[in-house]
Amino acid sequence: MSPNAAIPSLLPIYNRIDLVFERGLGSWLWTTDGRRFLDFTSGIAVNGLGHCHPHLVKTLQDQAAKLWHVSNLFRIGELERLADRLVANSFAETVFLCNSGAEAMEACIKMARRFHFHRGQPERNRIITFEGAFHGRTMATISAAGGTRLIEGFAPLLDGFDQVPFGDHEALEAAVTEATAGILIEPIQGEGGIRPLPRVCLEGLRELCDRHDILLIFDEVQCGMGRTGQLFAHQHFGVTPDIMGLAKGLGGGFPIGACLATARAASGMTTSTHGSTFGGNPLASAVASAVLDVMLEAGFLDTVRARGDYLRERAEALVARHGETFELVRGTGLMVGLKPRGSNLELAAALRAAGLLTVPAGDNIVRLLPPLTVSEAEIDQALETIETCCRERAA
Ligand SMILES: *Cc1c(COP(=O)(O)O)cnc(C)c1O
């Protein structure tokens, strides 16, 4: 407590779980009082390579002894290398680096508006978004996502967003106007409850955008960076965006975000239109490059896909055996949602008490987000823990 007020010294915006971790290795976390937990949260899809991956630790330590930060007023070797590699391994031709998912999405939104402005159509400045979306906590990103939990008490919101239901193509077509600049969507909703967009919807989105000269913006902050078994979730669908936001898994636990774009979509972002003090500094860029070193190794993503299939198979069998406890399982790769019939918060608490960490999400989902480096034995252990909890709750 602070000395003279009944408020904790830490702003109480999180209802924090009473666990303090002091150490992590691979898929495991240890508390200060020596308890061990199997981590199927990965810091909410951040620690894609698990805790303390040796290549990341070494890269961070080496870079920390050389150079942490210089301004973007100068060329930055590590940043140029990271940008080259993101471009070489994606649809994008250019990249802006920042420090978080919300900042990445802010850059995406600004870029879409600026594109039309630059072409002499400043009145095209509205962006279509989807119910259940999450794009971050800044004014623009909460305005984009809507949702009472995000926006209540923060009016006036930013104008320029038109929201439609998730997966309703007719409503989407009807929402397109002369003023539509872009369509912003998570190919798989994360916070909304691991809700994948059907392939036909993604194909339809691309076609709609092409027809109306609208920019298609993907928020892959949570579903990107190998999480689904492809480097980017949209690669499963063969549909590419014009602009895409990344963060979370990009730094493997080091804060970094990115806005990737085609040359055309980025054409309005000329000198001095945007910037960042910290974005892509040598420390962050070196670590993100090290994440790519591992994820781009031959076979890495194949293994993620195999582990994802294995997790999915086992989870489906569990749901089939325990229809009294679970309604369904959904997701792609190592981004799996279990929907219990009872409360997701209660289930997550019961699993935690049994040593398994999971993340609740919207639509009463419990998210399983293990590190991409998770082993089959660890998946077995997680599923056995869930099964034991089911039996105990049924008893
Ligand atoms: C987490 C998340 C964000 C926001 O990222 P921050 O780093 O918390 O700002 C944006 N979009 C999606 C899809 C996310 O999951």
Account of the protein in words:
This protein is of the alpha/beta class. It has two domains: 55-295, 3-Layer(aba) Sandwich (Aspartate Aminotransferase, domain 2), CATH 3.40.640; 299-394, Alpha-Beta Complex (Aspartate Aminotransferase, domain 1). Helix content is 36%, strand content 18%. The protein contains twelve helices and 17 strands. It has helices at 42-45, 54-64, 77-88, 101-118, 139-145, 148-151, 169-175, 199-212, 282-295, 300-321, 344-353, 376-394, and strands at 21-25, 28-31, 36-39, 94-98, 126-130, 161-164, 180-185, 188-189, 195-196, 215-219, 243-246, 257-261, 326-332, 335-340, 356-357, 359-361, 365-368. Strands 4-12-11-10-7-5-6 form a seven-stranded mixed sheet, with helices on both faces. It has a four-stranded mixed sheet with strand order 1-2-3-15. Helix 3 (77-88) packs parallel to helix 9. The longest helix has 22 residues, at 300-321. The radius of gyration is 21 Å and the shape is globular. The chain binds pyridoxal-5'-phosphate. Pyridoxal-5'-phosphate binds at residues 100-102, 105, 134-136, 186, 190-191, 219, 221-222, 247-248. The site of pyridoxal-5'-phosphate has 15 residues, from helix 4.
Per-chain topology:
Blueprint: E1 21-25, E2 28-31, E3 36-39, H1 42-45, H2 54-64, H3 77-88, E4 94-98, H4 101-118, E5 126-130, H5 139-145, H6 148-151, E6 161-164, H7 169-175, E7 180-185, E8 188-189, E9 195-196, H8 199-212, E10 215-219, E11 243-246, E12 257-261, H9 282-295, H10 300-321, E13 326-332, E14 335-340, H11 344-353, E15 356-357, E16 359-361, E17 365-368, H12 376-394
Parallel strand pairs: 3-15, 5-6, 5-7, 7-10, 10-11
Antiparallel strand pairs: 1-2, 2-3, 4-12, 8-9, 11-12, 13-14, 14-17, 16-17
Helix pairs in contact: 2-9, 3-9, 10-12
The structure holds pyridoxal-5'-phosphate.
